[in-house]
C-alpha cells in the first residue's frame, strides 16, 4: 500500500489537496468512507484489494483526519466534483465507486455528474435523500453509546469507550465530526431523491437489516429512485457493514461486479413478454458490468410494435435474424430483412412492426443495460392484471428515461 497526496482542481471548487491510499491491482475501486472517518474503511480496503483482485483507492475527505479543507469545499456535490477530478488525474476507467453513509451520498452525486470514467456505483447504507416517515437520525445529537446502539446489529462488540481514547484520538474525532457537519448538515438534500432519476450508471444499494441510523425502507426508496438500481438487504449487520460483516459486504460487491462467462441456450433466458410480441432477455447486464443488455424479440405476423418513442440515456440496436421487420423513424419507414442491423441513438424516434406473413426474430441490444428493467416492469404490470394501454406503457417508459413521440 502506498499513501500519496494529490493537488487537484475541481469544477466549482478550485484547488484541492487530496490524500489517498492505493493498494492492490486489478479493476479500480474508489472507496469512500463515511462520517466515522477513513479508519472505518481501511480494513475493508485491504480485504477488497486482496480478494477481488482489485486496485482499491481510498481517499480521505478533505477536512477529515486533520487534512486541509478549502473554504470553497462545503457540500457533497463539491466532494463529488473533487473525486471526478481525481479519477481524471489518475486516468482510470470503469471505476466502481463504493461509498458508505455520506460516502454513499457522494457516490450518488458522482453518478449524477456522469463521468465516463465511472463504471458502477455501490451505495452502502447511504444517506442524502429525504423519505417521508423514514428520517435519518440526527447524528449530531448522539453520544458515542447512541452511535453504537443505532449503527450495529451487535452494539456491545463495537462500543467505543471515550475514557480510553488518547487526546490525539479525541482531537481527530472532533475534527471529523466538524467536517461531517460542514458537508452533510442535516444529512439530506431535499432535491436529491428526484434528481436520482438521472443516474445511468449501474447501481447497487446494499443495506444492513439492523441499520437504525437510516432504516431499510429508506434504503429501498434510495434504490427505487435510480432507474435499474438493485437493492439487497444484508443480514446480521447495521449501518457500517464494512466493519461489522465485511465478508458479507465483499460477497455482495463481488457478485455485482463478477466477470463470469454467460452461456444462454435456445430454451433459456428470461421471458418478459408473451403474446404477439415475445421478449427473451439473454443478458441483463450481470455479465457485462451493466454496459450491455441483450434480448431476443419474436414478432408475430401482421403485428404492430409499441408507440413510436425515444430514449434519452441509452443506445438501442436491432439485428434482424429472421423475417422482415419494418422500422419507422419519424415519418420514414425501412423494411429490414435478415442480417440487417438498425442502430438507434438517444433522441431518435422509432418503433417497429412485422408486416409480413412469417414470424420475425430480432436481436435487441441496450447500451448501457438500463432498458432491460422496462420489460420486467411490463411483465409485472400484466401479472398484476393491469391492461397494457398506451398510457400505461408510457408511464413505465418514463421510469427509464424514455418517452412516447407526440409530434
From TrEMBL:
Matching entries from Gene3D superfamilies are given as: alpha/beta hydrolase (3.40.50.1820), Jelly Rolls (2.60.120.10)
List, for all copies, the residue spans of the domain called Cupin type-2: 296-365
Q: Which Pfam families match?
A: Abhydrolase_6, Cupin_2
Gene Ontology molecular-function annotations: catalytic activity
Q: Which InterPro entries match?
A: AB_hydrolase_1, AB_hydrolase_fold, Cupin_2, QDO-like, RmlC-like_jellyroll, RmlC_Cupin_sf
Positions of the AB hydrolase-1 domain: 30-251
Q: Which residues cross the membrane?
A: none
Q: What is this protein called?
A: Uncharacterized protein
- Species source reads Actinoallomurus iriomotensis
Q: What is the lineage of its organism?
A: Bacteria, Bacillati, Actinomycetota, Actinomycetes, Streptosporangiales
